[in-house]
Amino acid sequence: MRVKICGMTSVAQAEQAVAAGADAIGLVFYEKSPRHVNLALAADIASACGPFVTVVGLFVDTPREQLDAILRAVPLHLLQFHGNEPAEMCEAYGRPYMKALRMRPEMDVNGALVQYPTAAGVLLDAYRPGVPGGTGETFDWERFPETSPRPLVLAGGLTPDNVAEAVAVTRCYGVDVSGGVESSPGVKDPALVEQFITNAKRG
Ligand SMILES: O=C(O)c1ccccc1N[C@@H]1O[C@H](COP(=O)(O)O)[C@@H](O)[C@H]1O
Question: Cross-referenced InterPro entries, in alphabetical order (predicted)?
Fold first, then answer.
């Protein structure tokens, strides 16, 4: 089980998550998010993580020039797309990418998955109209596909209390969390981070 802790807003938070066993950390480049980081801070956080931790950049319909500038400044290993980016746009940067799909009630999940054959992974998240992610809401885990052409990551409303069950029900490749390990938006709680990672890996 791989665990990503998303929305790091300080070097100390990232170092603590890595020390607690996080496989990946996320940097949010979506300006409307309370977890948004500027380039200098993002670069400092990325370089504090060490060579064996995946540093993920999160984007929501970010214009090409802006994303290129971020890539020049911050050493990102994986791009996570949370907007309406088609596969060609996700592929255009020549980096491994993960596409987030929000689980609208009427969505044909298998049909959506095959639209991203080049993704390193696909993340399934809760759907709230008008909100691209970080909702703190779960979706019906029974809708999680049993098989997939690409590794599937579960997100949406995960917490230390529900993550073991979520892993058991979905048998996902990995989990991603933001709000469920925070004391307030953008502030990670070290105890919750540690509990989350322990419970996810145990589950
Ligand atoms: O974290 C954010 O602020 C965010 C903003 C815009 C799009 C996605 C965002 N976060 C991602 O959303 C999911 C679920 O988050 P939560 O655990 O329910 O708070 C997760 O993949 C985050 O990386």
Answer: Aldolase_TIM (IPR013785), PRAI_dom (IPR001240), RibuloseP-bd_barrel (IPR011060), TrpF_fam (IPR044643)
